[in-house]
Every structure is written in C-alpha cells, then in structure tokens.
Amino acid sequence: MLEKINQTAEYLRSRVAQMPTTAIILGTGLGPLVDHITEKQFIPYSEIPNFPVSTVEGHSGNLIFGKLGNKPVIAMQGRFHYYEGYDMKTVTFPVRVMRALGVETLIVSNAAGGMNKDFRVGDVRVITDHINLFPEN
C-alpha cells in the first residue's frame, strides 16, 4: 500500500507546481464550490495511477488543484464509497495520498441527517461523532 501511495504522490508532484497543505473532499451538496476555485488544474481520476474511479452519479471524478480565495487547495470532485464495492483501504487511499503530498488540513463534506427538528436542508454542521455501521473500520 505504501508503495502505491508514494507512486501516486510522485505522479501528482510531477503534474502540479505548488502543492497545497489544505484539501477538501466535496460531497454532492458542495460540488458547486469548484466554481469558486481559481487557477484550476483538473486531473481526472482515470489518469492518476492507483486511483479508483467514482461510480456515483453526479461525482465528476476529478482532483482539482487551485486557489480558494488566496489559499492553495486540493479538491476532490467526487469520492469513493464502501457501498460502491470498494474496500476501506481503497476508500481512504486518496486521503493517504494527500497526506503524503503534505496536506495538513482536510475538510470533508457530505449529506447527513440528524434527529434535531430544527435542522434544515443546507445547514452547515460539524459532526463530532457517528454511528459506524460499516463492517470494516
């Protein structure tokens, strides 16, 4: 696994001049955030060695390097899910690669429900715990 992580990181370093220390994994609801990233460099997952391909409709399948405001970022436009048939090592592979690239801050967005009646669609919440129903952990 470490060999694959390093191989993928080296490939990305060869394609991108400035490596950001912040990454964002965009869930379906935050996909339009890509429109606010400037100086974009798209790298399709299909071109990245060892990267899986997202099969979820609406997940574009691109790694995007650019700037959000003045901050250099990496954005995952689409991700991989356990329910797509991937094992957890594959699901977490991009995060491991980003760490190998020097990412120190990771923001992950997703669509999640809650029991609070005051929650509304589109509310931003910080999730501090969850019920893990996956057999792999």
Helix and strand topology:
Layout: H1 2-15, E1 22-26, E2 37-44, E3 62-68, E4 71-77, H2 88-100, E5 105-108
Parallel strand pairs: 1-4, 1-5
Antiparallel strand pairs: 2-3, 3-4
Helix pairs in contact: 1-2
Give an account of the 3D structure.
It is a single chain. This protein is of the alpha/beta class and 137 residues long. It has helices at 2-15, 88-100; strands spanning 22-26, 37-44, 62-68, 71-77, 105-108. Helix 1 packs across helix 2. The protein is globular and about 50 Å long. The two termini are 17 Å apart. The relative contact order is 0.22.
Strand proportion, as a percent range, falls in 15-25%
Query: Largest sheet at a glance?
Result: 5 strands, mixed
Number of strands: 5
* Overall spatial form: globular
Primary descriptors:
alpha/beta, 137 residues, 5-stranded mixed β-sheet
Short synopsis of the structure:
The chain is 20% helix and 23% strand. It has a 5-stranded mixed sheet with strand order 2-3-4-1-5, with no helix packed on it. α1 crosses α2.
